[in-house]
Design brief:
The chain is α/β, with parallel strands linked by helices and 325 residues long. The protein has helices at residues 2-14, 30-43, 55-64, 78-85, 98-111, 127-142, 159-172, 188-198, 216-222, 234-248, 269-281, 288-292, 304-312, 316-322, and strands at residues 47-50, 67-70, 90-96, 116-122, 147-154, 178-181, 206-210, 225-230, 258-262, 265-268.
Length: 325
């Protein structure tokens, strides 16, 4: 998808300069992730960055002496965390502030005048989507005159489910004026907006979501999409740099677990998208020299804190200031 392509493009940009040999693989289920980890270990990798770490995956890495980190979300399962804490090869996590991003969706809808909202999301158990869902619900509850009139939680690739639900909600609630959806990938963005078009509600019911997809600019122009968050792809780059520094011995965390936290770039309307496209999509948000400056493999005077701060301060204003054209 769009995010996966952005990961690949960024790794292609930095890999040679950072002395990395990067292999990108994709899976959706825990079983697929474990199988892919087995394949990567067999291929001789030194470390694995995984979207969803499990105890069996950690066991494989322990036995092979391969380092493991998770991107996309913190570890929320206490049993898994306890297992990871006992490993010498577990290094930590990176995430974007999914809870805050859920709040940002609702805030954008409210400021646009929306008051009767439907919430769509992935079934409970996915850490990223759970945090987004909670942020949406908590923010909506702050407004006395905003009502969540309907909610639905489906699969991770539930485009048809979401399409059907949107049409049902429109029929049931003529006052419906907005949708907050925890993720746009896997065809969900197209499905929901197509459903609104089918029932003649394009531009009348506004959508806020996360994960920029192909066609985002068109949807913003026609008014069906009000808000979308994206641009989180540098997250894995910072995590990979930390892992490489630790493997090479230039960074000693002293037993501390890595815990990076970044932000989505918030896009409202076509003007916001044009700026996003210029600085985030058509360019690299962090140039090689900026990344080397916070890597202990290339700058022995830097620190984990400096790398953390650089990623934690990520925003469109931050990138514009550093890369003013």
């Amino acid at each position: 998808d769009t995010l996966g392509a952005a990961y690949k493009e960024y790794f292609d940009y930095i890999a040679e300069e950072f002395g990395m040999n990067v292999t990108l693989v994709a899976g959706t289920t825990q079983e697929e992730h474990i199988s892919l980890a087995e394949d990567l270990i067999e291929a001789g990798v030194d470390g694995i960055l995984a979207y969803q770490v499990t105890s069996p995956m950690m066991k494989l890495c322990d036995e092979a002496g391969v380092y493991l980190m998770q991107f996309g979300s913190p570890i929320t399962d206490e049993d898994i965390q306890a297992n990871l804490d006992g490993s010498d090869y577990w290094l930590g996590t990176s995430s974007v502030d999914d809870y805050k991003s859920g709040q940002n969706m609702v805030e954008a809808l409210y400021e646009d005048g929306c008051r009767n909202m439907v919430v769509l999301g992935v079934a409970a158990g996915n850490p990223c989507h759970d945090l987004r869902w909670n942020g949406i619900m908590d923010k909506a509850a702050e407004y006395d005159d905003m009502t969540v009139i309907g909610e639905y939680r489906g699969g991770t690739a539930a485009a048809q489910e979401y399409s059907d639900q949107v049409q049902n909600f429109v029929a049931m609630y003529p006052e419906m004026d907005s949708i907050a959806m925890t993720g746009a990938s896997s065809g969900n963005l197209d499905a929901v907006l197509s459903a609104l078009d089918t029932v003649g509600m394009t531009g009348t019911v506004k959508l806020a979501t996360l994960d920029v997809q192909e066609g985002t600019d068109t949807y913003l122009e026609e008014g069906s999409l009000l808000f979308i968050g994206g641009g989180q792809h540098p997250e894995v780059i910072f995590l990979a740099i930390l892992m490489a520094d630790i493997i090479r011995g230039s960074l000693d965390m002293g037993g501390e677990e890595v815990s990076l936290v970044g932000q989505f770039i918030n896009i409202v309307g076509t003007d916001g998208y044009e700026e996003f496209k210029k600085y985030i999509m058509d360019d690299f948000p962090y140039y090689i020299e900026e990344l080397k400056a916070v890597s202990t493999s290339f700058n022995p005077d830097t620190s984990y804190q400096e790398l953390y701060d650089l990623w934690n301060s990520y925003s469109l204003d931050d990138v514009e200031t550093r890369h003013a054209k």
